[in-house]
Every structure is written in C-alpha cells, then in structure tokens.
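Researcher: Here's my situation. A collaborator sent me these components and asked whether they could plausibly form a single complex. I don't have experimental data yet, so a predicted model of the whole assembly would be a useful starting point for our discussion.
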Amino acid sequence: MSLENTLAVPYFEVDRSALVARLRDILPPPALLIEEEDLRPFECDGLTAYRQLPLIVALPENETQAQAVVQVCRALNVPVVPRGAATGLSGGAMPHRDGVVISLAKLTRIVRIDPLARTAVVQCGVRNLAVSEAAAPFGLYYAPDPSSQIACTIGGNVAENSGGVHCLKYGLTVHNVLRVRALTIDGEIVEFGNAALDAPGYDLLALINGSEGMLALVTEVTVKLTPKPERAQVVLASFDDVTQACDAVASIIADGIIPAGMELMDKKAIHAVEPYVNAGYDMNAEAILLCESDGTPEEVAEEIGRMKVVLERSGASEIRVSRNEIERLKFWAGRKAAFPAIGRITPDYMCMDGTIPRKNLAPMLIAIGEMETRYGLRCANVFHAGDGNLHPLIMYDANRPGQQEQAMAFGAEILELSVRLGGTITGEHGVGIEKVGQMCAQFTPQELAAFRRLKAAFDPAALLNPGKAIPTAARCREYRLTRGDTSSETQRS
Amino acid sequence: MDAIVEQWAGRVRAAVAAGRPLRLRGGGSKDFYGQALAGDLLDTREYAGIVAYEPTELVVTARCGTPLAELQSVLAAQGQSLSFEPPHFGRDSTVGGCVAAGLSGPRRAQVGAVRDFVLGVKILDGHADVLNFGGQVMKNVAGYDVPRLMAGSLGTLSLILEVSLKVLPFAVAEQTLRFELPQGKALTLLNQWSGQPLPISGSAWSDDRLHLRLSGAVAAVSAATEKLGGQTVGEGEAAAFWHSLREQTHAFFAGDAELWRLAVPSASAALDLPGAQLLEWGGGQRWLRGGDAAAIRAAAGLAGGHATLFRAAAAEKSAIGVFAPLSAPLARIHRHLKRAFDPQGVFNPGRMYPEF
C-alpha cells in the first residue's frame, strides 16, 4: 500500500561495502546490523502498513559513536533515518532503502534531575514515563503524556512534538522542553535553547520540536518538570446526541474553564471499549465526554462544580464524578484503551489525526458518518475534544481485496475535510511518510518551497530522513493531478 | 490579495531590485530594542484590524498593525487575555511588533512566552510571496513550526502580516503578597514554592522586598494566601505594581545606566555582580543596572543562560553587541535561515546580529 508515497522517496547511490567497512571502525560488532534477519525488525515504526528494509542499522552506545556514524554518512552521502522507540504513527522512522537507520535507543541515561529548578536532563532514548517516574519522589512529573508514554522516548517526542490528553492545560512537547542537544548532519554538536527560559537568536528550539528528524539528530534533552497536582477528579457525562456533546465542549470553554483534559468518544468507540475494560461507560449513550480538573482540593471542587452546571445545561443525560482515585483511573482506562479495543473488533484499523476548530466537531462527525456509508467501512471516533484533535479509527480488513485502498481514501478524505474546516492534517502524530501527499492539500507550492529552503539551512545535502514530511514539487504535481486539480503552479527553490 | 499587501509585496520587490533594505516598524515602541535600525521605513500600522475572534475557540487572529491595546480590550470584553502579558513600552505598540519582539511579561514563568501562544502566521517573505503557516488550532504538526520561529525574530526573516494567538480566560481571583527578604532567601523560597502546586502567576524581588502574585480559582488563591503568609497588597496598588514592572516604569528602570537582562536558570544563586538587581520569573529573569559587559556575559553563561543589553546608548550597543554571541554552528544556521526567508537581506538588516 505504501507504493504511492514511497515512490516519492529520493534515490541515493551508496557503496554498501565501503559504508560497512567505515562503520566497523566506529561501532562494536553488536551495534552494527547488516544481515537481513537483523534488519527486519526495523522495517517499520508504529505505522505498520508502510515497510522498508534499511541498508544498515547502527545502534550507537553514546553520543560520540552517533556523531562518528553521522560523519561517515555525510562523507559518503548516505541518508540517515533517526529512530527512537518507533512508536510513531506516521512512518517518520520508516527506513530509507539506501540509508542507515541510527537507533538511539541505547542512550537511556537520566543525566540529572534538579528538583529545585524543576528540570531533568535526559538522553534522547529515555522513555517518556521514565522521566515522570524519576521525578515522582520530588512531587514533580513531565506533563506531556502521549498514549504511548510507557514506550516512547523523549527524543522521539521532540521529533514529533508529541501531545497527549492534557495538552490544552499543560501544552505540547515544545512548551515543556528547555534545551535540545543535537548532532547536525555534519556531525557537529549544537544546543538549541539552554538551561534558562530563552536563548539568544532565532527560536531554533521551537523549530526542532516537530521537525521529524529532518533538521538534526536529538541526543539529549532538558525538560521542564511540573508540580504534581494535589488532586485530580474527572466528570463522566453521557449524551443522547453527539452534537449536544460537541456543543458542551464549547460551552465549558465559554464558561472560562480550561479542563486538564477533555475527551469525547462516540457510540462505536464506547461499544468497543466497554466490554474490553469495563470502565463503566453508558452503553446507551450516543457520546460520552470525560472532563478532568486538577489542582488543589479547593480548586478542583470549585471547578468540578462549574463543569457540572455547564454539562447539565448542555443536556447531558447522565453525569458522574469520580469519587476516588480508583474510579478516576477506571473512567480514564476506557479512553486509554480505545485503540487496542478497536484492534480487538477489526482485523485492521487506521488512526487519523486531523485537528479542526472545536466549533466544527459536530459537522465533522456527521460528515464521517456519511463517509462510512459511502466507503462501506466503519469508523469509531475518539477526540481530544479540548484541542479539536480528532482520532477517527477506520476499521478494515487488509485481506479483503480493495479494503485497504478504500480505508486510505476514507482517511485522505477526512484529512482534506479537516483542512477545509479550518484545521490541519495532523495535530500530533506527524506527517511522516503517511500524510506527505496531503501536505500538498494544506500548503501552496510557495509554502512548501519555503519549507524545503528551511530544511536546507540545516541539511544542505538533504540526507536527514529524506522523503518524509515535506513533499517534493513533483510529488505535489502528481497529487494534484490525481485529485483532478490541474491549476498550474509556480515553483521557486 | 489585499491592496496594502500587494503594495508591500511591490516594495519588497523594489527593495530587492534596488538593493535598498526595508526597516519594518509598527508603532516604534520597541525601536530601542536590538541593534541598529537601518533601511527605508515600512510602517505596518496601515494593515490593522482583528480578522477573526471566537472566544470559545480560544484563538484570535489579527493583522500586524492592530494596536496591542485595542486587541487586549476586545479580549477583555470576553473575559479573555494574552496571558503572557506582553509589555507595550508605549501607547503605539502593535500586535506585529509584539510578536516580532518576542517579549513577555510577569506571567511568563508560569504560562509561557509569546512564542508559546503563536498558533499561526501569514507572512510576506523576501521573495515577495505571501505564505501561511500554522493555523487557528491548538495542535498542528504539519510542516516545520515557522510561526514560533517568527516570534522574536525582530522582523529579520519576514514581514508578519497576520498572526493567530491562543488566548485564555482571566483568572477568577488574584492576590498579591509582599515579603521582606534578602535575595538568596527569596530565590530559595521562590523555587521551592514553584515546585508545589500553588497558583503563582508572577514574582518580583528588588531592594530586599519580594512581591508574589497568585491567580486562579477563588478557593485556590485564598488557600495559598493563607499557606504562604506575607502581607497582602490591595488590588489597586497590586495592579499598578505589576503594570509598572511590565512596562518598566518602576523606579528600578529609571535613569540612564545601561539595562541588562539576564536569562538564567531560576535556581541559580544570587549573581555576584555589582549594580542594582531586580528579579522576575521566579529568578529566571534578572535585570541589572550597569556593569562590565564581559563580566555580565560570563556570569550569565556560567549559570547556563545568557545576557542581553536591553537598553543602552546606540554606540554602546554596537560596541558590545545587544545579544550574546552564538556558537559557530548556530551562527551558520542563523545565516542560512536568514537566506532561506530573505535571500537579498532586505528585512531589518543587522537588527539582531550585525552579520545579517
């Protein structure tokens, strides 16, 4: 299925044996994988539909080795694909056929935790949750919590500017990182940001977050730690009507409340989840809304009271407030298990990631309902409603001829509608290889050319993760042709 | 395309053709900030107005020339604000200038800086192309984060035409407390308090006196007030104090001595530098009057941060350099980025670093 997008990946002429010889001087034997059976586990990331065997996998044990590997690749003009835990959902870590995958999974040291300054310095391969665990004795944690947080690494979080369910109040990765130490494609060590709240010059720290491994290789990160709220409580509201649930989201914000998390699930998602985890969701509801408050006990009591008033006014058919931590986690368990729960009821599914203005949540849900009929496929909906970030889960069976293509077309239509509704094709999963085509729908040729010039400012030879995130002009011409758009384009590069 | 934007695109093309740079300027309230001003004036104030504002989306989109005060009063009417509290430094401050300068006020340590609130930009680049990046939504990882790159770029990369900013509701309750404390003790307490779930929204220490602001739910503010002690400051007096800090009308900022801004880790010990100091952002931003440039830059660097010559005479700024020097690889990336957006160097040349 990956054909359409992988064809756009540029070709490099690489002398494999010369490359292996040079890398053998740098890496101990177990850190250099060259046999097909050893390369196979690296052929994809969390987006398993797209696979590509790499030329070589390097597993440096420290920054110095990583630096030397990059220098060799630069000298021999070999593409470099950085890889963390490979939990990414857009194929950002999918290997390049002619390239070296540099797995940074061995750089797992927590260098330093400074409880007074509320910062942690960690190597790129440290897992997201491990940061919070290490900070817990000091009453602190690392706020961004992508659902893969048990496995995903901080380096990968920076590459993707990962979010989670608490973004509206606590921000994305970019808001919670102070400093990134990285390797340029020339193998120089650079530091974006510093130990203070800002750095001189352009905000390269903002630029490196979400750059999908295309500007530099992250090796070490200083993150901000947040005081753990004394208390958290969640409201679980049921609605007989999806539109009412969507309107309730806007009403809560209109009331001046910024919930710590606000998640919406539709009936299909509820019915997949409830038998799986027994979260206590209302099986008769058309939609449920999870609305969390955190802070001091006084603050939470005040905010939960206000949320309940708004939800009642919005027509909620049932409102339950978690009575204790066990119940709070139970209410959340259903949401957190949504993806695997869908995985149980369908052979395959695709998770989309558009973001739209909150006011368009209801029209989007209605449009997805129509698409289900048109494509003959089911789609369950799980939303980070507070941020307008959608995760429609399109269910299909790859073994049935044509279904995968139908699912992809379904997904593409959701993304293009996201753009038309004033949003974006990706809120937190990244463009990677998966959505590189839809970039042509969201950006003009001039904007894409600006992206390419920006990349060249960091990586003039275009060796870092080539073929991802930013489509070539040729790729977009093809995309527009297949979409029946023959408008001419002027290109500048 | 709007007539004004079209006209400006023409000016960019003409500037490129003639090799005559443009000096992008809103109300001129931040003319004092950065290196030399050079080029033919392009006044951004004629492109003004709020393009879109829906309070329930928590986003406002405004044109560059919109007066900052006007935008803030429109937000305030809906109980919302720019919570990074941008300084105006004069009545003529514009939205475009606020984003280009990238300066944030007392709440920065808790809520974030200008760049944290920039969701989207429409720019006119050095090719005279109008480009849109980001958007009006909270989460958006499609393409590189150009909107945040524009924040604080001092108009050296592009002309910001329009900007979308995240807005937040005002806190329901607010209380300012005052403590008599020496600097070291104040720093320790500020860092300890910041590690606890307390609704702190600003701090300022100078002359052995610490002001601490709390904002949030009524119950949270009153519980914290009780817990922290100190002397409560009346509402009017408190508002005037934080305003004087944000706008640098406070007595500390008076006089002609150079004003240095040191950004250091909040927990850094009191810096051993002569001259009066005023500390904000829980210790993360330290203002210093006068002193030896080399010693100041060295102290800030040693602490893990950097020092900016915030206000000084033009001759002094060009001799010392306003912004801390960049490492060689970073300086190269800066030059290349400048070239990527503004290949002929027509926008605010030398405003940030003399080399570009």
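Model: Some features of this prediction you could bring to your collaborator: The two ends of chain A are 30 Å apart (CA to CA). Chain A touches chain B through 98 residues (CB under 8 Å).
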